[in-house]
């Protein structure tokens, strides 16, 4: 040790100490950041190029009478979308945060055109397209956000691209979940005529009370509405639920309390469902 602490060896010794301390400090910092910083959530981070995608989808969205009856300012809509969640706690979203965005880009859908779904997104979308009907994802705001994720951090003007809250593991009041709940509620409560819902008959419980359809859409249908349910099972799989099953009876009970008329058809394969109309 005496030789190490003389002349040039003293410099090397000190340099080595600083290097080791830097590595240890960096490791501790990364560990703390990983567990309490931007990467602390269990969900996917914000979609890359989020703002660019929103702008492009808005610019190219087909302006049809049933889906958007007013002129739209895509730049203003994008700014309203960003201001709803940027610089805010990603676990403290409220419906009020999206009020301005909804006011700017709300959609009008005629009676008898709405299609709801639960665990059947692609099938419902295909059915709606063939029949000239409308799913939530076909509306302006639904199409802007479809397949994207987003969240911010308090005090930061940037999106968190590392992680966002998962509604089961972190918090239900995150900005992604609340966004779709707000849109789903308005989509259901403004419905008129016959509303259709496509459910997965391959599941033991085709109706799930904890799904967005179960906890948001079904309870917000107005008494003037008729709900037509289709239980469709996957190709090669036998149906596991039916219109007389306990889950569908629960759905019928919820609708009955709201004086919503209910019609149900089951035992349909995907091909039969898409080809029978």
TrEMBL record:
Gene3D superfamilies: ADP Ribosyl Cyclase, Chain A, domain 1, NAD(P)-binding Rossmann-like Domain. It is found in: Membrane. Its EC number is 2.4.99.20, 3.2.2.6. It is a single-pass type II membrane protein. One of its GO terms (molecular function) is transferase activity. Keywords: Disulfide bond, Glycoprotein, Hydrolase, Membrane, NAD, NADP, Signal-anchor, Transferase, Transmembrane, Transmembrane helix. One of its GO terms (biological process) is positive regulation of B cell proliferation. GO terms for cellular component: plasma membrane. It comes from the Eukaryota. It catalyses: NAD(+) + H2O = ADP-D-ribose + nicotinamide + H(+). Its main location: membrane. It holds the Pfam family Rib_hydrolayse. Homodimer. Belongs to the ADP-ribosyl cyclase family. This is ADP-ribosyl cyclase/cyclic ADP-ribose hydrolase 1. It comes from Capra hircus. The gene is CD38.
